[in-house]
């Protein structure tokens, strides 16, 4: 396994990379988040890499890597494996440099990511269920054709390119105390950590992975990259089952901790970013925000949370937002017993209306051994403003004499 990568990824190398990327990548904005600031008890900032070209940070490392190829390597073309964001970064970089690109994607990769990759001129081939299987297919293609493999994270140029985001963070928030980074293979986390620690070694740098696709905690515990046997997460952009040697060394030597977040937390973060910040983030891109929402006491302010990507299928976005609302107790399922008399339902709905809850669905249930002959059960789906409002709705119904059974909507 490779040793510490800071012998190759130096502050000078990062600054040189930043100059090479000038005019190609966007110096993405950083915005203060009032609601996160309230949670952590001090300034909290969002580094908006979802507003980067191609919708994620990946163009940084992809362009730097490809731009440094020799003329002979460029002539052979490049090949990559990606669930979508690295694919777009490679495709755009190759297009800008006039190089042919082939990208292997896992089956079921998000449609917008596939279309965008093709739109940048790359050939797309589906292979395998997970990124590691697509990467194996890309390696085989490279051996057969001579194309240069552009690894999604485990290359010094890629790590260096991603690390330029860390230099921007320090320029934009020079008094930052904590930097939180979504983490899959570790290229972004490792690059940012090397950059930040080189300038401000006192800054705490934390990675965040999806709980059911978190290869780093176990790998760091064992002292070597260790593969996961299974993964299941909506955050396809950070679903990487095995850290690379270089990225593992960077994370091991420069990152303070790697946290995990649940699927509910990811959904709540996507919802909060859309609702409070008017930012579209994919679940992977919202992982750092999810961690801050989950356990704000862990993050010393000023906090910078990187929003690493915004490439999400609109259909999935709708599902994730609904899931996030349910996880935040913004929906209620109620079963209410009412008298089976004219005006009974109208009276019930009048009580609900008086609480300010929004009725999404109403269903009558007349056949049940729990009901008396003169009773009917009404199933209500309600939208509320959150846990306190939900409690107020239940209190109002109880105060009006209704028997209520309730559960949160999954």
Arithmetic mean of pLDDT: 91
Trace the largest sheet across and list its strands: 1-2-10-7-8-9
Question: In percent, how much strand structure appears in the residues?
Answer: 15-25%
Category from helices, strands and their pairing: alpha/beta
Total strands:
14
What does this structure look like?
There is one protein chain. The chain is of the alpha/beta class. The protein has three domains: 5-53 and 158-326, Rossmann fold (3-Layer(aba) Sandwich); 58-149, Rossmann fold, CATH 3.40.50.1100; 329-407, ACT domain (Alpha-Beta Plaits, 2-Layer Sandwich), CATH 3.30.70.260. It has helices at 11-21, 34-40, 58-67, 71-76, 85-97, 111-119, 131-145, 156-172, 187-199, 216-222, 245-254, 263-277, 287-294, 314-327, 344-355, 387-399, and strands at 30-32, 44-48, 78-81, 101-105, 123-126, 148-149, 178-182, 204-210, 257-261, 303-307, 331-339, 358-365, 375-383, 403-407. The strands form three sheets. The chain has a six-stranded mixed beta sheet, sandwiched between helices. A four-stranded parallel beta sheet has the order 5-4-3-6, sandwiched between helices. A four-stranded antiparallel beta sheet has the order 12-13-11-14, covered by helices on one side. Helix 5 links the parallel strand 3 (78-81) and strand 4. Helix 8 packs across helix 9 and helix 12 (263-277) packs across helix 13 (287-294). The chain is elongated and about 85 Å long. The model is unreliable at 1-7 (pLDDT under 50).
What is this entry, summarized?
The protein is an alpha/beta fold. The chain is built from 16 helices and 14 strands.
